[in-house]
């Protein structure tokens, strides 16, 4: 019919206008196609479909691919959509579509296209908005491949064999809004051209191991699909959400996740734009078991939907969803969940998919905020403990998965029995002692905990506050029990106490003892003390002064320091006091050890050794908070007037052995 010039029979579509004209499977080759379009030139066709056998494919070199002249006679047909899918075109030649003066959409998917001429799309500048090259045999994209398609909005290169993007690939596409690269063989993104207006980027089902260069392609994206690649670090999620400020839909599932090591700079900002996150099959159970990336959702406060299916989750970490304050839909299907805490889901959640898990006896309180719930494919444990859940199923207003999908999984005798049938035969649990035992265990636990806390706090209080406690006790006891302060016994002796100490220790003794005991230092003190520096008579024999002081005092207080042990007169006074004690059988001798005088050093002196082996002696406290208690003991000793049970004869003159000179420890007054 159209063997020569295609005009012999005239235009078969004269005076006709087509919204859609489908010329598929007509058997036209390139030559006949050109002649046919020449015959119908000028016929308005909005949508032209031309599928069949056009093109040489791989094996038919005797056939031709369309060229610049093939479609030139469609120039006046105002074709808006041109569908050349499902042909055998192998090579897009120079300006092959230049005859389509106003075309907006060209579909050459499902061909055999392996090569694209540098100028293949000449003539389409300024009007082509969508180009579909999916399901072809393209292996690479160069910087010139789509150059100057300045109005192109959508470019579909899905399901090709693209393994590399050339330097500055996709140049000349300033208004590109959607780029489909799914189903290719990309291992990396190279250094593509900047696409400032790209909003939809599909890179799923490739072989990507790294995301270097993705910022050039999709930094302004609102939809990003990176699923089913070979990415291994969940840190990518932090990085993408942090840097893609306009991102709303992010699909990342199906990668080979092995670890999660986010860097500090990739912290997800609060109040970001993300609305939907897909992390299906992302090894979250392994990651969360290691305690890693538990803060993944903390800043996703605007998220509305999340997909976490196929993650082998056996449990949900406590508080894992606390940041999802706006979440409405959640998919946890095809995991291994056996138990859910009551408060695990945010109150904003409305739709929940829990199909194909291992929930045996769910708590109805877990689902209190939901509007829809899918539980199909779970293995419910049909016993009396399921009664509350069955009652909830009958009474709830929540839209549930079909009732026939809710079946018993255990015990074996009830396997595959619909829950609706089991509801009629379920019996309440027998009352046993388990609750009482649990209550008793709880009470014992509380009691044990309180006991441990009390003992611990008591030890801490005693160690830190015993001084203040003693002062408070003395004040209360003084008011309630003891009455006015006791005075020393009235006797005919001149002094209440002879304070015997080395002159080298005078400053310390005055500050630590005399100001607390002697009535001449303070009117509040009740003792009239005698000590060498003030009360010994000058010119009198020193030994006579000592004897007068010992025999003229009710008590003798020896301040034993290293200086005392080196002072012969001090040891002589000790012997005189010991002699009086033996003679009167009265306990008049009080020993106070001060400074760093070890017990073994006291044992070197016979007289002192014999005494301290039989009687208690006082030691100056190391902790300042024990001073009040010490003074109380000392005053009690000074006031006491008791007979000794038995005092063995002792040497009047103990051995005096020189000791090392060590200064007394400074006290805190």
Automatic annotation (TrEMBL):
| Compartments in which it is found | Membrane
Cross-referenced SMART domains: LRR_SD22, LRR_TYP, LRRCT, TIR
Q: Which UniProt keywords apply?
A: Glycoprotein, Immunity, Inflammatory response, Innate immunity, Leucine-rich repeat, Membrane, Receptor, Repeat, Signal, Transmembrane, Transmembrane helix
Query: Is the keyword GTP-binding assigned to this protein?
Result: no
Question: Which is one GO molecular function term here?
Answer: signaling receptor activity
GO BP terms: inflammatory response; innate immune response; toll-like receptor signaling pathway
Tell me what this protein is called: Toll-like receptor 5
The beginning of the lineage is: Eukaryota, Metazoa, Chordata, Craniata, Vertebrata
